[in-house]
Amino acid sequence: MSLNRLLTCQMTLLAIVHAAPNPTPPPALARALPLSAVRLTGGPLKQAQDLNGEYLLSLDIDRLVAGYRLRAGLEAKAKGYGGWDSVEGKQLTGHIAGHYLSGVSLMYAATGDERFKQRAEQLVSQFKEVQDKRGTGYLGALTDAQGRDAAGIFEQEVAAGKIHSGGFDLNGMWSPYYVLHKTYAGLRDAYRFVGSKTALELEVKFAAWAERVFAKLDAAQIQSILNTEFGGMNEVMVDLYVDTGDARWLDLSRKFEHHIITDGLQQQKDILAGKHGNTQIPKLLGSMERYAATGDAADLTAATFFWERVAHHHSYATGGDGKDEYFGEPDHFNDRIDGRTAETCNVYNMLKLTRRLFAYAPSAAYADFQERALFNHILGSIDPQNGSTCYMVPVGRGVEREYSDMLGSFTCCVGSGMESHALHGDGIYHENGNQLWINLYVPSTATWQAAGVKLEMRTDFPLGEAASLHLKLAAAKEFTLALRKPWWAGAGFAVKINGLTVPGKAPADVPANTGSFVELRRTWHDGDTVEIALPKSLQLEPLPDNANRVAILWGPLVLAGKLGAVTGPGTPAVDPKAVPVFVAAGRPIDEWLKPVAGQAGVFRSIGVGRDAEVELMPFYQLQRHRYAAYWDLFTPQSWQEKSADIARQRERQLKLEAATVAFVQPGEMQPERDFHQQGEDTAPDRVMGRACRRGSKWFSFDMPVEAGKPMALVATYTRDEWRKRTFDILLDGKKVAEQVIEQRGPQQFFDVEYPLPAAALQDKSKVTLRFEATGGNEIAAVFGLRMIRREAMPAIQAIAPPEKEFFSKQLDYHGIPIKAHAVVSDAALREAYQRLDMLMEHQPVVLANLVVAGAQLHIIGKEQVTSDLPEHRHMKGQKIDSYGGKTVDERTRGLGGLLTSCGEENLLRLDKDHYHGRDICIHEFAHNIRNAGITAEVRKRFDEQRERSIKNNLWVGSYAASNPDEFFAELTMWYLGTFGDMGMKGPKPENGKDGLKKYDPEAYALFDDFYSGRIQIAALEASADRQSHE
After folding, report:
1. Where are the domains of the chain?
2. 883-918 residues labelled b (16+ CB within 10 A) or e (exposed)
3. Could you give the CA distance from residue 892 to residue 896 in angstroms, rounded to a whole number?
4. CB of 235 within 8 A of CB of 289?
5. pTM of the predicted model, to two decimals?
6. Cα–Cα distances in angstroms (integers) from residue 161 to residues 137, 145, 216, 217, 380, in the given order
7. pLDDT lower than 50: segments of the chain
8. Is 765 exposed, middle or buried, given 0-12, 13-18 or 19+ CB atoms closer than 10 A?
């Protein structure tokens, strides 16, 4: 999106500000209609608002204020909530009550429902009781880990200059000003939206307390405090200045100016890499509010530049930003799309900043971003069934959303969600004098009080492609309606007034794919209607650092691919090969992505999906599913070159994750808290966008283990260490490994696996892993710690709903799914896993080729028949000539091909097995290996060996001699220790490898070379050949 017009508006504003020496507030160029003047009437935003209201009304105020009362020496009326708001331990205790007060106040304004006003008044009343009891103005519930009340720590330590500050810790408290900010903001909102004068009185007293804490501190000491996350303290103090006119609070706001961040932004330097996202955004909200109150040009520069960098250089297609809560390098996304991306608090605060910036520079660029973030991330962050909100709404491949326990976790994103979903009516309409901007297309009504105009917007957007405005006026009036023409709306965008088409009036200098406003100035009458056509088209949005990794958009809506339902914590991880790529690079998207009839916004790929075609639907609708929001594009040639490598990488990661008992991300706040990180002379760091922890003495983590099982620690390091590092790794105080890391360019990450002594894990469920520097050296940066089961078979996972109405369970063999109906025993799947391991243990490239080709193994239940399998249903009851007139069920208990099958009874050697002594799984899957796992050159070697063996009068009358496919399958079965054809004429080899070696030594040598891994296999392009063999 071009910002030329936006920047022009802002430069004009800056010129005005610089010309005026006094602090007179600058005039807003576009004022949002008050939240109380807008009512949502339908659509998904209304649904989210309603769910939010139901949730807020379900919470118990007495429980919300339990911590406040206890810390003030009052009796709690009810037990407090838990999670991050728990009254026990070092938590963010009290932050939810502040969010709640804002939430109910905003909901009252948004709906007019008196129940929300009553809730706000009840909470303010309890806050007053707490504040009165304390007598100092302080109003909080925080403690440190030892249970010391935060008020005492502030007043006795911080105010005296005894300051110990880190990223999220101030004198032993977890981000205390961040928490207090929520209480200030709640009081502000209760005053502004509910009209509670008591709330304002409480806020003033609370601010006076904060003023006293800073009173004797110098600038350097205050800046040290601000190194700990402090939320929007600068914002609420500016707002208090606006609400009271008392300049004390403007001065206090300036003290909450974190210069290490804002100075660089005022110089228009992107200093965001490695910074915690939601720590920074509220600071710039404060800058923008101070600009609105004073006209300080430096504040506007910082806020505008920050927004432009985040929105256009640090944000994903959904409007979300950050990986693991942190900003990366600008325009570097290729290695940052997977994993825990896009925290919801960030997007909530970016939308607040966006709406404020629009008021002073009404550019469509701001409204376009608002639409993108609102209809993708924010709508995607709430479950439309039960209102659960999400911490992360990731954008990667094979990811799922992080839903909150709404009555148990009370994370930051639960709190911000209380406010976010109350604000969906904010910013739809803006006005100034005789102009009304229509920024978003949302079913709603609005009252433009100053102009005496009421209007109703009817639309089924975001899925629909049209909107209409219906005006009600007491008398005819001349004014301008400014309709946003979105950046994604092409030539089909059209406007009609009272049924007559209006010629396009968008500014002529607006480039393509850039939003603008169509201004309709006329005398309007009661009953006038305006119709807007909003045609959407498909387009690709590539990453700036990888043109072939793209998001797919339909209008403003990101389309995501559905990769399986998430039914609970035990839902299996997505098979990496189930995250397809598209062999479609360079082709127009409408050639290979087609709409699904009767389903608005749903599309299906045609002929370009590798491993599978994909159904895509709007990102926000993919709740409780694993999905992909970014896709790799390949040409046929590039896919051939890349596919084998992709398969190997995916297989390795799958194996590692399947074996993982626990993973900790060093250098990130919450994971380190969860795993009880401790240390001396140690600090978090970031390298190439990845978090890590370094140390010159020691640091440790508590990690869970599974007693009695072989386990290992996997640590991730990098080669970029600027000098040699040496250190020991200790398990519960005993050294288990020594490590040396030396600088080796270029930068790269690598894993080291450390087997852990079984005796050291006996009867333990948790151990302490300690990294300790040796020889006067330092500990290398550690980027990940993973406790794994060594050589563990993954768990069998349920498939719900059943795939193709048949397969209900799956066991993954390194990317090859072993599937079966619910009637098949788990033991059969595990036996099949062992068979595949026998076949491919030493041939990883064969395995990779089969993964790329889409190989699967299907088990026929002992009471089922071959034609019950979905791939063979079309053969049920058919007489087949090649089977001597028998049906497939009369002739077989399994077939080869990419979709190999075998019988449960044969795998488990049950009495009813008609093929006793033969391993049908080995035999049939060998067909798969021959036809899809090896190259033509290697296949030719086996075919030539068959000819030599037959020429030497071996295998006479045997099934092995019938054709090259059966020769490979039968001798594979013999080599791996099972019987071959017992009806062959003449001498028959003894069982197993030794029997084969004695009977046909030349063939044995070839098979031994192959299955021992001595024959090198090249990577193959995926084949569509699905021919079946017996």
Report:
1. 429-533, 538-634, 660-789, 799-1011
2. eeeebbbeebbbbbbbbbbbbbbbbeeeeebebeeb
3. 11
4. yes
5. 0.69
6. 21, 21, 8, 6, 45
7. 1-22, 508, 569-573, 575-577, 744-747, 1022-1028
8. exposed
